[in-house]
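*Target chain*
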Amino acid sequence: MKRILMIACVSMLFIVAQAQTIDEIIVGKWKIVETDDNKGSKLNNDEQKQLKILGKASLEFEADGHAKFKQIFSSFNIPDGYWEYNKEKDVIIINDWDKRDVTYMRLWYDIIDKDKLKLYVDETPYILIAERKK
């Protein structure tokens, strides 16, 4: 019985050690492959245009905290931002690289798998499915 319990404990430790957190998974280059909204087809014309633009977006999260976003909104790119994971609020925060107190956006997320994320852009109806670029 002790042996079975010991094997079970070791197995659990191995599984926990293999689990990755969002701040480990997110490092890399991502491409938006699908867009959706949480309004159920009640987007106004401007929101529909923005959602279409978001479908062409690419994102890059570097291990040193750099964040680069291309084509996020029609007049809004982040050529050199700073990203951080706020564990208390379970959110990814994108700030200006030089002025860390200037927040560009907050992203809530669901991990679909290690190469696919579902992102929710704060204060918008937009939902983005991002896949890791290979």
Observations:
- Residues 8-18 have pLDDT under 50 and may be disordered.
- Strands lie at 28-37, 58-61, 66-73, 76-86, 91-96, 103-113, 116-121, 126-132.
- The CA atoms of residues 57 and 71 lie 5 Å apart.
- The two ends are 46 Å apart (CA to CA).
